[in-house]
Amino acid sequence: MTLIKKTILAISVLMTVYGQSQQRTKKSNATKKSGYTITPVNIQNVKLTDAFWLPIIKKVQEKTIEYAIHKCEEEGRLDNFLIAGGKMKGTVKGQMPFDDTDVYKIIEGASNTLISEPNPKLETLLDSLISIVKIGQEKDGYLTTWRTINPAKPPAPWVPVIEGKRWESLQISHELYNSGHMIEAAVVHYQATGKRNFLDIAIKNADMLVRTFGDGATQVHGVPGHQIVETGLVNLYQITNNKAYLNLAKYYLDNRGNPKNHKLYGTYAQDDIPVIQQKEPVGHAVRAVYMYAGMTDIAAIYNDKDYLNAVNALWTNMVNKKMYITGGIGAIHDGEAFGANYELPNLTAYNETCAAIGDVYWNHRLHNLTGNSEYFNVIERTLYNGLISGISLDGKQFFYPNALESDGVYKNNRGSCTRQSWFDCSCCPTNLIRFIPSIPGLIYSTTKDVLYVNLYASNTAKIALENTKLEISQKTNYPWNGKVSLTVTPKNETPFTIKLRIPSWARNQVLPGDLYSYKNTSAAKTSVTIDGKRIAYKEDKGYITITRKWKKGETIALDFPMEVKEVVTNTKVAGNIGKVALEYGPIVYAIEEIDNATAFDKIAIDANDTFEVKKESNLLEGVNTIQNKKLKAIPYYSWSNRGVGKMKVWIDYKE
User: Fold this and answer.
1) I need a labelling partner for 188 at 20 to 30 A (CA). Which of 250, 494, 576, 647 fits?
2) Which of 286, 117, 105 is closest to 185 using CA atoms?
């Protein structure tokens, strides 16, 4: 009997004993307008067949979810809900005040899996997990198990306890962070199944928050220490139309940096000045990008220019001065934080996996607001490099930080030189579970009579535009080569527009701004044909824009010219002076000691070097390597899957 079957059997007994409503209801069609001009195509309508992304998603679905559930059982995450609900005796288990969220993130990732493809056994498992969560919820909707079990004894010694009351240590208690992840997971589960069993738990909790927080004399004045409840509340508002949730999300953001509301938490938690005055990302990087995502929601829904100006300034500073070539953010171990402008160390880089995930959520919102391809250029760079580097090829080992260099001695990954099987703070493994199954939802988006093609991956999709429905079939071997074929089949031969993103690397741009640049400019241009006939095209905000009356079965062929490129960094980044990094298409490369055992520390590139790209099907589950007589480089995301050793992204360059 598999672990999942055992889990279903064990928890189903509890469901029988304690009861659990699992009614499936018709999902609300009365969704309030989001304020965003562009709508992502739901993953339910995108069937992935891609040779790169599908194996990664299936690995998470078939291995990592089961593995994480086992870890949650082993470390008492599920027991805490039962102890809190009085169905089990004991003290709180685990070491973090936010351990509850690991269960929520697993449910969210599994729910995204159900959206893509029905799976009755998985759905039953989720019902079982949700029944346990419900047991831990207090009558008024409150849900943080450690405080319910024993408010005087938090699992982490750094959580202060004064009187053992709720909300007394909002800066660090993670009570609202727990609510945020729970609400986000419940919304996705409802969207996946139409069941209210988790949604009702979330609504009960959110209603309690609405009653509790605000400017009233009897209400709590305060904001979360760790942001995410803001986006959770906005998402809940979107499916319920209850504006109280939206108002509370805005309350939390409006009162950040407001000393009249609470004692300020400082720059670490982005709580030193009001959010609309913030121009530079500071402090804990995960908290920051979750907050910026919430701010973007408010900018969109309220058409708030102050919020919009703030997120634009924050994004510009981050991309121009604080982002790694891999898309990683948060350079500093101390405080898991952004450093100063141009502070981007390699050996000691932090680049938390959760921060990469949060940054994708933020950039996706910015694209939905503007339709500008720069945001997807950041998303693509992050996805293929500094995000999936967080999970091993077997799906059971994880990077919390993602360094850009390893000497084989410095323990860059929270006490290890390589990926670990789990952490006392296991936010990154479960966040990968939460996010990776949702990736197909990034590929396409629409507005009125426009289809945006944002990412390139083999799939078939059903898409509804304002005046027609259509099917699109995408075939490609991206990211290993730049050829893409898209067959368009509209139900009616109606004029509409297709926008095809030109990746920034195909436009001689690493990232927006001057933080990175290519040493040499490529003269090769992207070509476009329709049914074999080459066409001229217009470019709009980084997209090839084609407006015409599309016929059934017409095929667009794109050819993004790929070549090995050398990247250099702005000289204000001291650690990268005199060094280059190698890229091929969207992939950033690294050299590992295992492939370059002779004189690894002396490897250098010079102006006369040429490179060969070689497909190695039996290496690291199939990758393109970059080689010459001096070195062999592998995709950065795949490093540290063959034991501990040295690694570099930035390689010495000799003129």
Assistant:
1) 250
2) 105
